[in-house]
Amino acid sequence: DAGVTQSPTHLIKTRGQHVTLRCSPISGHKSVSWYQQVLGQGPQFIFQYYEKEERGRGNFPDRFSARQFPNYSSELNVNALLLGDSALYLCASSLTDSSGNTIYFGEGSWLTVV
Amino acid sequence: AQSVTQLDSQVPVFEEAPVELRCNYSSSVSVYLFWYVQYPNQGLQLLLKYLSGSTLVKGINGFEAEFNKSQTSFHLRKPSVHISDTAEYFCAVSERESWGKLQFGAGTQVVVTP
Fold this sequence. Notes:
The complex is a heterodimer of chains A (114) and B (114).
Chain A: E1 5-7, E2 10-13, E3 19-24, E4 31-37, E5 44-50, E6 53-57, E7 64-68, E8 74-78, E9 87-94, E10 104-105, E11 109-113
Parallel strand pairs in A: 2-11
Antiparallel strand pairs in A: 1-3, 3-8, 4-5, 4-9, 5-6, 7-8, 9-10, 9-11
Chain B: E1 2-6, E2 10-14, E3 19-21, E4 23-27, E5 31-38, E6 44-50, E7 56-58, E8 64-68, E9 73-78, E10 87-95, E11 103-104, E12 108-113
Parallel strand pairs in B: 2-12
Antiparallel strand pairs in B: 1-4, 3-9, 5-6, 5-10, 7-8, 8-9, 10-11, 10-12
């Protein structure tokens, strides 16, 4: 079975632009989370979705938004990009939002803002 | 609120020597604990997790960790490392009521040399 897949793998954007990152969870997984990992730091939680509903949001500005589709795939949108948004964006999925389910990560989308 | 402190930013170690990576956490509620590994230019892979029960947890690739509630620690160990263990290691916690929302430490870079 395929793991968590993310696209695109790399992209370069200009300050002020908008970006959409996509994530397909492992087949059968209904919970998707997004993390931002700035170079040299640990990942920071951005959003969690379960059954198409937002279950949690980290300390990120409103420029960051996400949604989950009926097939459980997810998009992360970032508006008005800043240089500081340059990071690796990781998507993670788990079977449900119940404790004990292993959380699997994708390989991420590298975003560079210039 | 919770926090995770990884006490060493970088740990150099010789091949076949033991290694210990230290992790301390703080939280006002009960938590689950995790160790993830990140190889260069890749996503995160789960090494092991502590949910409940035995405080000594065995994971993949010969790693193990011990949960110490009184010291709020979850140190990771491996008795004999290989060159292929060179990677970044992240300790993470999740509140028991918020499965899927991981709080990560800053990471420990392990460099294994012959």
